[in-house]
From TrEMBL:
Residue ranges the record marks as coiled coil: none
Record domain FHA: where: 85-142
Name of the protein this chain belongs to: FHA domain-containing protein
Domain of life: Eukaryota
Pfam families attached to this UniProt entry: FHA
InterPro entries, per database record: Cell_Proc_Reg/RNA_Proc, FHA_dom, SMAD_FHA_dom_sf
């Protein structure tokens, strides 16, 4: 009699597709002039002008960032039109910073000022974008990649910087 063994089927594990968001599309779309931005806005991001257009507050506050060098005012930026502003070095051919600083101790994407709507209020936050010389708030180094709430009169700087950035709300 012939040996007629029945061929056994090999077990192949079933691989199911994974439809969870990977974040890759968001990263690809999060660039400026071809440079990948280190900051992705949170879901509660809100522009000050948009926030105050929806509320019935009598007088709108005006958010500003004043840049000082050696106690002299260098430049002033209004922070009303966007929900976030990247602060970074201005040297090089491609500048991605919304608020450029002419200093070598400042990274190209140093930190970000982010406006967020929380519990019916608009709050401003600061986050260090893993900069090489850290970001300080009122002289204290802030942790990288964590939001820290800003208050009027807060002084933003980097270690060994000649510039001070003063956050104002008038």
């Amino acid at each position: 009699m012939k040996n007629t063994a029945i061929p056994q089927k090999r077990f192949r594990p079933t691989v199911l597709p994974d439809f969870r968001p990977s974040g890759l599309l968001e990263l690809e779309s999060n660039n400026k002039e071809g440079v990948l931005l280190k900051h992705v806005e949170p879901a509660d991001a809100c522009e000050p002008n948009t926030f105050y257009a929806k509320t019935s507050i009598g007088q709108r506050p005006l958010y500003k960032l004043m840049i000082y060098r050696d106690d002299s005012l260098v430049q002033e930026f209004e922070l009303m039109e966007k929900s976030s502003y990247i602060v970074g070095r201005a040297s090089g051919e491609t500048v991605v910073a919304d608020i450029p600083i002419e200093e070598d101790t400042c990274s190209k994407q140093h930190c970000v000022i982010q406006f967020r709507q929380q519990n019916g209020q608009l709050k401003a936050y600061l986050m260090d974008l893993e900069s090489s010389n850290s970001t300080t708030l009122n002289g204290d180094e802030i942790p990288s990649s964590h939001y820290v709430q800003l208050r009027p009169g807060d002084i933003i700087s980097s270690l060994d910087s000649q510039y001070d950035l003063v956050f104002m709300n008038s």
